[in-house]
User: What shape does this take?
Amino acid sequence: MKIKNVTIIDTFAEAWTLEVVRVVLTATSTEVALGGAHQFAGAAGSSMIGSRINAGIERAALPQETPDGRPGVFVSMAMPPDQREAMLEEIELRIALASLVPTIAVFDAAVEAAPGETVNIHDKFSISSERWEGYDTERELAGRKQCVLPTTTGEFVYEKAYKVCTNGTDGHFVCFAESETAAVTAVAAAKEALTAVDGVAPMGYGLEQVFREFDYIPSLRDKIADSKVPDGVNSILNLLMFGASPELMRQAMAVSLRAAAQVPGVMYLGAMNFGGEFGKHQYHLHQLLK
Amino acid sequence: MKIKNVTIIDTFAEAWTLEVVRVVLTATSTEVALGGAHQFAGAAGSSMIGSRINAGIERAALPQETPDGRPGVFVSMAMPPDQREAMLEEIELRIALASLVPTIAVFDAAVEAAPGETVNIHDKFSISSERWEGYDTERELAGRKQCVLPTTTGEFVYEKAYKVCTNGTDGHFVCFAESETAAVTAVAAAKEALTAVDGVAPMGYGLEQVFREFDYIPSLRDKIADSKVPDGVNSILNLLMFGASPELMRQAMAVSLRAAAQVPGVMYLGAMNFGGEFGKHQYHLHQLLK
Amino acid sequence: MKIKNVTIIDTFAEAWTLEVVRVVLTATSTEVALGGAHQFAGAAGSSMIGSRINAGIERAALPQETPDGRPGVFVSMAMPPDQREAMLEEIELRIALASLVPTIAVFDAAVEAAPGETVNIHDKFSISSERWEGYDTERELAGRKQCVLPTTTGEFVYEKAYKVCTNGTDGHFVCFAESETAAVTAVAAAKEALTAVDGVAPMGYGLEQVFREFDYIPSLRDKIADSKVPDGVNSILNLLMFGASPELMRQAMAVSLRAAAQVPGVMYLGAMNFGGEFGKHQYHLHQLLK
Amino acid sequence: MKIKNVTIIDTFAEAWTLEVVRVVLTATSTEVALGGAHQFAGAAGSSMIGSRINAGIERAALPQETPDGRPGVFVSMAMPPDQREAMLEEIELRIALASLVPTIAVFDAAVEAAPGETVNIHDKFSISSERWEGYDTERELAGRKQCVLPTTTGEFVYEKAYKVCTNGTDGHFVCFAESETAAVTAVAAAKEALTAVDGVAPMGYGLEQVFREFDYIPSLRDKIADSKVPDGVNSILNLLMFGASPELMRQAMAVSLRAAAQVPGVMYLGAMNFGGEFGKHQYHLHQLLK
Assistant: This one.
């Protein structure tokens, strides 16, 4: 299978179940919302490396898309199911840090169709007493309970309860390119395509190089017995993503793969797996793109 | 003292000693460097609230300003002196997370004139064995030792040793405005002015609203006995910064105060203090601006 | 009628028929496409003041939305019907200027449902001989004819024919605010909302202050007999837009008005008209927002 | 001569005298100033192709750098000396178009050291009567006369007189790369480096591909007798610039060449000339970089 000059390797991305929380941060302007989102989603590129959460910025939210009608940014976060407690703790901290950013509000933006469990983070961590010393009040917005905290600038508002989507997943593809600039350009274009799929976010920066996969490191090509680096390929880069459901992930992988294939210098598009032995999901590239 | 229509309150900002580490992240493009910087400096708005480090993005670094001649971004980080160990651990984690971003390199960019102690973070945390399994090599660049790690995209490079500036400081001012939009616009302009002072960064997003200072919360004006909210003021917002030395902080506060004063709707510029009882430094606004 | 604290004046925006051409500029990255779009749509804020065309940038185009699957930017242009020849000449010039930007391609992106007439700009202006000295070739993409020009970087591609939508229209609303910062913040949020309506673009920067409307100038409030500046209002700013059809314009005005109404400091939202005597269209605010 | 793996061809860029006008647009925020700058500098990539002026955006101006202490953006414009009248007319139009952007002000920002002649554009084109119907007033700022026009949002301010620098020049270099992505990435990095040289701006987008130079078009390599496309090179891209003096141009070319040389995939850096027969200046690459 080829898209333009690019060979789509007949393989699959092995993927794991993740629990996903999706929020929208709104503010007086997109600019402030984005500043808040960078803080909210930062230092979160890989819990395997040690970040306390995995997170990514999906896209800007238009005023008409948000609960309070102001500009915003969608941010998603995820952790493996057995680390839900750690994820919720980190979300609590990041909500508290968001209280510093003027005009910011935080709302649940979970994908409606995805199954999940609602957790009242505000009550679970006793945020009212622990952080706000009881100065907060409650407000209802579209039937959902908000915590309202008076601040020097105005107020800080956040939703009390968030749906933890329990059937989330990671996803990725591998871009094999002639050069570093081609690899970066291609995966950057792929990341742009992702913004069309609500509920799927890049993990961290999204464009992900890997150290551990020695058989995919071109400079070790001659030193590794079963190197997987094809002739002519000098740079390999992944797009690493996660989303609220396998169906959304399949959509996301399809559009992002197609975008990557348009960039000159891309030779193959593939994926990594362990034979399907460990992960719950398998996203077969040929099925996604047919 | 007035700047345009704005009254500069005759007061001072009380400030504390901080230890500061400053890095430059370079990459194939400013765009990628900035993506890496957002990850590097995220979730770091306030160690008092619970972030494991305080950090901020200073500005873009031009290719000719960086050790490897590529576009970059300056990022500073800080913690109180008694939390140096925690700061270094968090920096180590963030360097490891930076390894995910293609083409990124991390270099020490400490302000030369500021006193400090060099710490070899690479050796201190045995990063070579703990994270890279010994696959890294060493390279010298301009007399400084770099760790070089082969990756799927190319290589990940970072400096092994960083100077911890021991005479750093925080700083801030308080903007008293007629409205929320005026407050945000004014402190945003002030934050722009900061970029001229190398070695000073906003803390987190920089524009900082406060919850705990009840006497500065306009909506509680009638409920607090000694409210400090002047008549006509409806929104109060701080610019919170930190830098490598008190001298740099004085420069930074001067330029940022002047920028804030230009925005219509700003009524007063002031600062918060505890009478000078706790912090080592006092930045007197009238002295800064005369 | 009120939205939050904002009074929606019971009035209408008088509007004129415009002919509209909509293109998408694609490139190797969104960043380059946007650079090309700024050049393509610049110096085009008002043909009444003297720009040779009216133009505006709508939004980024995702790779999967464009004819060649690469990232892009949607740009719209317009002139009154009696100035079609001038509009087409200016479009021809701007296509020629686009040939300077590496990897840029220009495609027709006219709104399908809007009525119009197709004009082969390439043939009309003999671009092949006049500009390319016959070095161009033709390529078909999705049934549409493209001109392909070899360049030093690769190739420059543009569509030969464009649909001129003949039932286009301008549109606007007037934001009456307490302050300049509130006015700018509100209309900026309104402009964000516009991006949801494909086929409607801001005219020039979109946030439009006016000189000629003396009865709307707050600083002349006491000098003008029938000043229309309400008490408490100190700054008035319009969002000026244009689009491919009145139906799209009504959608655009509705979403942008609602977004503006969320910003604190906005007191009234209204519109300007000449009693409906001159323009073909009337967009009644209360009808749009009910 | 080599920089890293890149061969610097021993050649020179032939350049012509240009007259240059440099302005700074200030506004309530960098964001609005940049929007105004895109309008001010748009559709201006090449007067040879037909744009009525050549222009480029240099960089953001910090509040402390501008005459009114607000954030801004530096924009430069140029035309050959024999087209000064056309240039001034186009500047007058672009100033008038700037009056639409709320909070924008326009000031002369000519490089002090460069020789030139001051032209009072306001008087020359009778802007007061022709455009403002006499409603403008005059204000002095730092000894320079400003025109002040009351508007619906506040006021529009612009400097009346501008220095036309008479010893300006264009400049460029040619980047020969293995691939399109390498060429674009390299010249983009080069353009970043330019921002350090006040008084030099990219011409239009700056990254400039060329159609007319058939001997530099890789896809015509086999068809052109004396093709200048070296083996291994598949994409060629220029950085086209202009500035207020030859000295500034030499600085600009040096820093931008060095930045381009850092990008993998760049093979040669060179320049175009006609043997020095036509242009007044010759910028020899080896002299610039030694």
Observations:
- The longest strand of chain D covers residues 161-177.
- The first helix of chain D runs from residue 30 to 41.
- Helices of chain D lie at 30-41, 84-98, 121-124, 127-130, 180-194, 246-260, 285-289.
- Chain D has seven helices and 16 strands.
